[in-house]
Amino acid sequence: MPVTANHHLELAERLVDFGRKNGADQVEVTIGENTEFSVDVREGQIEKLLEADTCGLSIKVIVDQRTATASSSDLSQQTLHTLMQNTIKQATYAHQDTFAGLPDDHGETDSAEDLKIYDPQIPEMETRAKIALAKEAEKIALSDKRVTKSHGSGVTTIHGATTLVNSKGFSGSYKRTLIASGVYLQAGSGDHLFDEGWSDSTGTLADLWKPEQIAEKAVHRVTRLIGATKIKSQNVPVVFEPRMTAGLLGFLLSCVSGGNIYMKNSFLSDHLGKKIAGSNVTVVDNGRIPGAPGTRPFDREGVSTRETVIIDHGELKNYLMDTYSARKLGSRSTGNASGANNLYLQAGNTDPENVIKSVKNGLLLTGTIGFGMVPSTGDISRGAFGIWIENGELAFPVAEITISGNLGHMLRNVEIIGNDLTFRRSITGPTIKISEITVGGK
User: Fold this and answer.
1) pLDDT at residue 314 tops 70
2) In the prediction, which pLDDT does 4 show?
3) CA gyration radius for the chain?
4) Topology of domain 5-223, per CATH?
5) Chain segment 76-112, per-residue pLDDT in tens
6) Domain limits of the chain?
């Protein structure tokens, strides 16, 4: 790191004080620094190698309920003082908004050490070791003769620090690390080529999947699609793999975000306290799970992260809000100014294999293509592919199909929830079975 976290805290605190003395009613200063490394390998050769240090500062000032923002990568005193003065001047021309302002209550934040989001082994890792990881995963994957092509294998590491200070008395910083590794492949022949792969990411080096694990998973995902065919259109039970469940939760996130709620751009507006899902459905956002990918002590406004139950046994309990949306809705921030922290569907008790065995005739959904999700209505229509299920067994791969339905209907018809919840991504969930979805084919 080019400078210490203490140095950034002192710099931010001085700049906040300068802004207040120069006419700002409220001031917020954020400093972020990152060191990122990435390597892409294709057929054993390095295609791209990048290592970059970045550092930037952003400010928000509020003058008479008028807000202006600015940013700079030059952290010299003269530049920052000029930037602050100009931003204060710009704020006087902005639209007055009675809901504007910094948080009044930041809550109690956990220490970054307790949250286990920084691993010193990652910044100390040698470049040759990262390149070797990428090459090894691809080499193992290509040793399977069913794989016809590599789209590349890569490793990325990031280590950095975030510092935030505001004129409401908040001052804090934390460091975090990330390492990710993945390989993407092609299988099939002629006009029936299929692209799939697998990647893993974690905040600690010891938890990263080994190259052979990543390669094996990637090969399995791409080769199981060989020979995929269309099916006739029908309404059937659909089993969502964990990644597909996460995609569904990502759509739910947009439907419960405070911005979409106060703008009436969600079908769940005015639904607090109402039953919107089956009684077996509980969805939570928790920014304090030690070591999880979305864990952080505080959000980008300095509000402490927390556990927020969004859906409790089918009942909509909370929206996810920053300070502004909370004020518009007459509530308080949930510590989600940075978006979802660790958003997940609570696991059930059923093994994934038994979820599949419960289906007489239906689809194991393994991937989707394109867009087609509308928060204002909850409607979903997307291209898809997967494995057809007959009599509880995986029968044959299917492709060039669509799935369509409504998120509200799907949430109410979650029939079985698997026990395979893991926290490898910030939005995650277990295998689930939805009793009926329209699958479009030929």
Assistant:
1) yes
2) 55
3) 24
4) PmbA/TldD fold (3.30.2290)
5) 999 999 999 999 999 999 999 999 999 999 988 877 7
6) 5-223, 234-440
